[in-house]
Design goal:
Number of strands: 15
Number of helices: 10
Shape: elongated
Strand order of the largest sheet: 6-5-4-9-12-14-15
Distance between the termini: 55 Å
Structural class: alpha/beta
């Protein structure tokens, strides 16, 4: 009997117990670190990740790199260099976006982790003029002999490595491009596209005006998420390229209001 009791007491906590511990930590600290929770509960990080996914689906928290934050924390903005989640999905989205490139002409590439993957995949044999407000993207493209690269000037935000402010706005007001490849922090059928920073939202709005065709690149985790600053209506976007992880009800809601969605 005593051996069995010791065995039972050493069991890992059940899923409801783990999720309760996650929510308790979130309320106390304002953030959950998945690795810390895994050590505390003597379970794997993958187990904690699945618990966090389940809690996010219930609307109780929001996943971020390495853990979770409260669902009401609309201003949270991970650094672009830390956005390593959904790497495979972002690669597929970026690859699918290549089909939207003009055979020649001009494009605008917004700052972001998925748009950065698109920049890395741009073909070497196509004559394109590329405008971007992202310093890492401009540097990535410098070695491409057939690309003419124009970095959009302005104040550089350390969080996203994107340029913002009046200088960036002035340049965007003077250009016209064939296709803009855009990013966002949140996509809501009711509230449109949102992002945490008002200056970056202002630049994103100007990008829309600069482009004949607007293509949004966003993995499924952005859908249903709401941030502080609105920068576009759903109707402003010609095409959303996302991954197959988007739940059917969210896909149906976006298509019901007229958005063309391509899943890859």
């Amino acid at each position: 009997m005593s051996g069995r009791a010791n065995s039972d007491s050493g069991r890992s906590p059940y899923s409801p117990q783990r999720q309760h511990a996650i929510l308790r930590t979130l309320r106390a600290s304002g953030r959950v670190d998945a690795a810390d929770i895994a050590r505390q509960l003597s379970v794997t990080s993958e187990t904690v990740r699945k618990d966090i996914i389940q809690l996010e689906r219930q609307g109780l928290l929001r996943r971020v790199h390495g853990g979770a934050v409260p669902i009401g924390d609309l201003s949270y903005e991970p650094a672009v260099t830390a956005r390593v989640e959904y790497a495979e999905e972002k690669e597929r989205i970026a690859t699918a976006a290549l089909a939207q490139l003009p055979s020649s002409g001009s494009i605008l590439v917004d700052a972001g982790s998925t748009t950065a993957r698109l920049a890395a995949l741009l073909p070497d044999d196509r004559e394109l003029t590329v405008f971007t407000n992202a310093l890492p993207i401009a540097l990535t493209l410098l070695t491409r002999p057939h690309l003419t690269v124009f970095p959009i000037g302005g104040r550089l935000r350390s969080q996203t490595l994107a340029t913002v402010g009046s200088w960036a706005a002035r340049m965007l007001g003077d250009i016209n491009v064939d296709v803009a490849f855009l990013g966002t922090n949140g996509i809501s059928a009711q509230r449109g596209l949102t992002t945490p920073d008002p200056e970056e939202a202002a630049i994103k709005r100007l990008m829309l005006r600069s482009a004949q065709r607007k293509v949004l690149l966003a993995d499924h985790s952005k859908v249903g998420h709401l941030s502080v600053c609105k920068h576009a209506d759903i109707a402003d976007i010609d095409l959303l390229i996302t991954d197959t992880g988007l739940p059917p009800d969210q896909l149906a809601a976006l298509r019901a209001i007229g958005l063309t969605v391509e899943q890859t």
